[in-house]
C-alpha cells in the first residue's frame, strides 16, 4: 500500500529504496544518499533488465493482472460468507429483540451492530431471500465460489459484462459461465425491489 | 462482506453466579459471552464483530483453583463484517481532502480513495470542497460510490481497519 507505481505509458519507475539494498543504477540516473527517495529512468533493454531492490521488477510497465478476490484462501475454518440480504435478515431479527435486550443493563450490544445493520439493509434489494439463494445455487454448480456468489448478489449487476469486469476471478470460466450467468441475472432482476 | 463464524471461547463465570437451578447459570454464560464479544470489537481474521446469533454448545465447566470461578468452553455462531482486497463495495463519502476522499461502508469508516485512483476527477476547493469530473459528475459528501478495495490493513491497537480503494475501472463510480 505504501508503494507508488508511476510510469503510465512510459518507462519510468519511482522507487523508494535506500542505496544499501544494492541495486544497479542505469546511466542517467541519480545517486543519492542512503535513505533519500530517488527517481530513476530506465531504458527498455529488451531481454536484459536492471536489478532493483524488489527483486528484478520489470521497469517497463506491463499490464498488472486485475486484483482477484481471494476470500476463501484468507478465511479461517468454520467461517462462511453471507450475502447482504442474508445478513440483513439475521440482523433485523436481532433488532426486533433489541427492546427486550436493552432492558437488561448487563447485556452489551457490540458497537458495530448498528452500522452493520444499516449496511446490510442498504444491500438488501431483493423481495425473497430464498429465491436469491436458489438462483445462485445454480451458479455454484458451474464452479462459482461462495464469495463470488455473495459479491454478485451484493452488487446487483445488470449484465454479464458487469460481473466479469467486477469479479475478474470469473473471467477464466467466461465461456462456461456466460449462459448460466445471464439466466441467473435475469432471475435476480425479477426478484429485485425497485429502489 | 458479511461473514458467519462458529467460534469457541472460554467463558469464566464467577462463583457467586453459579446457581443450583441452572437457569441463572445459562443466562450468566450468555451475558458474559456477549460482554466479551462486545469488548473484543474486531480481529484481523474476522473483521468487525456485529452480533452473536446462536449459542451452539456449552461444555463442561472446569473449576479454576485459587479463585473458585468456573470456566466453560462455549461454542457459538456470530456475524462479522470484513472488507477484502478485490471486493467491490458501495460506500458513502464522508470526508473530502485535496488528495482524495474517505468513504465509509458499514463499520469500516476509513476507506481511502486517492485522487490518483480517480482518473478524470479534479479537486475543486471551497467551503464545501468536491471532486468534479470532466463530464460534470460530482463527488461530494454524502455521495455513494462503487469502488474496488485494493488493500486492507488492520490496526491492532485501535482495533480498526483501514482500506484503500480504486475508482478507475469499468462499472465503478458514483451511483
TrEMBL record, chain B:
Keywords: DNA-directed RNA polymerase, Nucleus, Transcription. It comes from the Eukaryota. The keyword Transferase does not apply. It is found in: Nucleus. Gene3D superfamilies: Nucleic acid-binding proteins, RNA polymerase Rpb7-like, N-terminal domain. The keyword Isomerase does not apply. GO terms for molecular function: single-stranded DNA binding; single-stranded RNA binding. Its main location: nucleus. Signal peptide: none annotated. DNA-dependent RNA polymerase which catalyzes the transcription of DNA into RNA using the four ribonucleoside triphosphates as substrates. Belongs to the eukaryotic RPB7/RPC8 RNA polymerase subunit family. This is DNA-directed RNA polymerase subunit. It comes from Daucus carota subsp. sativus.
